[in-house]
Structures are given as C-alpha cells and as structure tokens.
Amino acid sequence: MRAAVGRAFPAPDAIWRRGRDAIASADRGLLERLLGEVREGLRTIHDSQAEWCWALLTMLRDELGEERMDDVFRRTQERWVTARYDALERCRRGIFRVDDRGHARSPFGAQPGGRDLG
Prior knowledge:
Largest sheet: none
Low-confidence stretches: 114-118
Distance between the termini: 41 Å
Shape: flat
Helix content: over 70%
Order of helices and strands: HHHH
Number of strands: 0
C-alpha cells in the first residue's frame, strides 16, 4: 500500500480491535482518533484512485480524441449508469412511504419482531 499511495496504513484488524477496546472503555477521544485515522486512510486511497482514473481518461482522450470520448462513454457506461439512477430513484421513493396511519415506513419492510424501521 505504501508504494501505491505513499503511506502505510494500520492493519484493519488492529484498528477494529482498538476500536472495540475504545468503545468498551468508553474512551471517546481514542475512538475519535481511530475514526480519523480510518477516514484519512480512506481519503488517501480514494484520492489515489481518482488520480489514476483521471490519468487513464486523459490518456484515452489523447489517443482517441475528444469527439470519440462521448461515444466511448455512452457505449461502455450507459446501461450501468442508467441502472444505478433507476435504483436510486426507487430507493428515494421507497424511503418516503407512509402507511395508512401516517407513519413513515421502511423501504425494507417490517423487521424481525414486527417493527418497521421507518
């Protein structure tokens, strides 16, 4: 990981164990520091991946030309993007369902014990 993104990260098991210990001992400061470490680690990985993708897209644009990129995106991503937006729309509609008594309902239905998450 260090070679790929320029820094080392703690092992996930170590973070998990320290997090459980912090929760068990009600050490809010430690838990906040651990969450900060995880957040910074994930941000660094995300940034590195975004830079890699940007470099790849730049290379493709330089090879294919700006005009061809629209066609490439449409052919390679249209079905994938359309399916994701449809799923988001279904989720958005489902989150705001209300039952006949005016209670919010979970898009996931009743949970074990008959309790609705909504």
